[in-house]
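Private note to self, pasted from the team thread so I don't lose it. Backbone tokens:
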């Protein structure tokens, strides 16, 4: 029981396929049993092409000298001695040689007993390995636990993303985007006599280190600013603590039913990523496009403001000329009037009043646009932070969880 006996073709078969089959199977069998006869046991082809190639397999090699019934006892002994000498010359140590006869069954009982012993030896080895495998798989099953690692829940991920957004200063940047939009709107449509005051103040994004490299607006078709690494203030201790709490909740969420050592492994994956996350978030903030497109109404109102400013300046110059003429008592030149009001007065006062009112309207429109830009910036920054969290925290965690699932599946299969 348990014996699979494969009778291979002769080593000197003229069929190439026979030799190839013999060479293939000889490499995988557990015991090599060479059957030779008194006429060909010393054949060089047998020893050079086959036996010598397996000189290290002496412990699992049998050599049977068939046709023992054709030799006298003394000749049989000499043949066995010579055969052993040849095997030693081939490099085989500890090979058992046996004289047999297929005709008279001489030595067949000994061969059968030898094969039975080899089979029993292998069965004992397999049984021991099988028992050891059951023992190891049982220990592994206890170590792995019965519960599968839970996937990262949306609630735990969202909590981590919100904490990361606080650490990254999303609200601060969004407010700075809104302030920058209002600042630029004032420069584009504000009352010209007071614009220079606004120019003395730096844009809010520049004040937090996010305005470098902006340059001038890119025209009416709009612009999207790409900002470099920021110089935002360091995150507060409270926000960093909240990020650590979110990370611990994430670990508990995915490993609540796992053995303690596996939970520690999950924590060992997550904790280092949380340490590096603030810098990665800052770099993400610095490379995030900001919604600072130049709207077309800036161009329209800005053009009207310039026309009103020119009218105001022209009216004031005209009035100044009339004042000088009267000072020197020179007759006034003919002056165009609109009703009872001289045209230069209309130009000066009208340009000033209308320009101021237009600036107020532009300020209100700018405030509305700034609110919209603040929400757009917050949304875009939040999406960028979510991607950063997914790439640097969630992805490594999912890799670890998937590895744990594969281990559990293989341990379960091992126990079967």
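Design output:
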């Amino acid at each position: 029981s348990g014996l699979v006996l494969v009778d291979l073709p002769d080593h000197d078969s003229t069929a190439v396929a026979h030799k190839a089959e013999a060479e293939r199977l000889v490499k995988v069998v557990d015991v090599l049993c060479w059957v030779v006869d008194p006429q060909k046991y010393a054949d060089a082809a047998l020893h050079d092409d086959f036996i010598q190639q397996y000189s290290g397999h002496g412990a699992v090699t049998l050599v049977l000298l068939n046709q023992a019934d054709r030799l006298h006892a003394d000749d049989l002994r000499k043949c066995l001695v010579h055969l052993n000498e040849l095997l030693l010359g081939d490099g085989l140590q500890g090979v058992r040689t046996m004289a047999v006869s297929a005709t008279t069954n001489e030595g067949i009982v000994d061969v059968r007993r030898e094969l039975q012993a080899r089979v029993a030896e292998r069965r004992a080895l397999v049984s021991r390995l099988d028992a050891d495998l059951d023992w190891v798989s049982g220990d592994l099953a206890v170590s792995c636990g019965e519960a599968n690692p839970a996937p990262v829940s949306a609630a735990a991920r969202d909590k981590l993303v919100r904490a990361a957004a606080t650490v990254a200063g999303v609200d601060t940047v969004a407010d700075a985007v809104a302030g920058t939009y209002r600042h630029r709107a004032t420069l584009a449509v504000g009352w010209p006599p007071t614009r220079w005051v606004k120019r003395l103040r730096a844009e809010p994004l520049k004040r937090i280190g996010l305005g470098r490299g902006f340059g001038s607006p890119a025209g009416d078709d709009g612009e999207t600013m790409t900002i470099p690494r920021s110089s935002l203030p360091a995150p507060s201790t409270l926000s960093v603590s909240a990020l650590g709490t979110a990370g611990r909740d994430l670990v508990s969420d995915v490993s609540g039913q796992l053995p303690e050592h596996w939970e520690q492994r999950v924590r060992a994956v997550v904790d280092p990523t949380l340490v590096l996350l603030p810098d990665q978030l800052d770099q993400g903030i610095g490379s995030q496009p900001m919604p600072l497109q130049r709207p077309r109404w800036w161009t329209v109102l800005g053009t009207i403001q310039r026309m009103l400013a020119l009218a105001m300046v022209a009216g004031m110059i005209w009035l100044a000329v009339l004042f000088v003429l009267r000072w020197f008592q020179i007759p006034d030149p003919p002056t165009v009037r609109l009703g009872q009001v001289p045209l230069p007065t209309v130009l000066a006062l009208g340009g000033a009043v209308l320009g101021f009112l237009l600036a107020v309207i532009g300020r209100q429109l700018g405030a509305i646009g700034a609110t919209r830009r603040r929400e757009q910036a917050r949304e875009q920054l939040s999406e960028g932070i979510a991607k950063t969290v997914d790439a640097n925290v969630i992805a490594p965690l999912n890799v670890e969880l998937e590895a744990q699932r594969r281990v559990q599946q293989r341990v379960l299969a091992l126990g079967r």
